[in-house]
Amino acid sequence: MEYGYYVTGRTTSTLRGVAALLMGLCLLIWPGFTAGLIVKLIAGFLLTIGFITLFTALAAASRSSSPVPVIVVLNVVVYLVFGLLVFLFPNFFLGLIAFLFGAVLLVAGISQIIGLYLGGRVANLSGGMYVVPVAITVCGIALFFSPRASTEMLTMIFGAATALYGISELVAVWKLRKLNK
Asked: Does residue 24 contact residue 136 with C-beta atoms inside 8 Å?
């Protein structure tokens, strides 16, 4: 009998595990640099998308001689203003990253617990498999509800939890591969 992957295939799960492990290690080893880099990347992404949307809309409007739709103008304004705000006030947005990191870990931990539960219906999984996803969920709760903690410490906690998530994803892939053989 072949055991399946409930959310994604083996390759995707392996890539997700490796990416999470690498990102977690970077956040853990270089917390200040990595958190600042994330904020700069977000600002750059928002500004880039805003300008691409602006130029695309202007080009389309010039070809058709019709005005740019209001929704597109609002879209451009939101991207450019928000990107500029993130770029000008990175420390404010670094504080918001704790909430974002917490939310990401909550979703990752809970989805992994659900995946293990569903997998446990098909395969006999030990209770020890739940330790890491529960730890990830607890870290997510701690990050989400700890606004006074330092951004660097929160980034390190997120990095450690993300690395654990990556490891547990790789272990799950390995165990499912063994079950399939």
From this structure: no
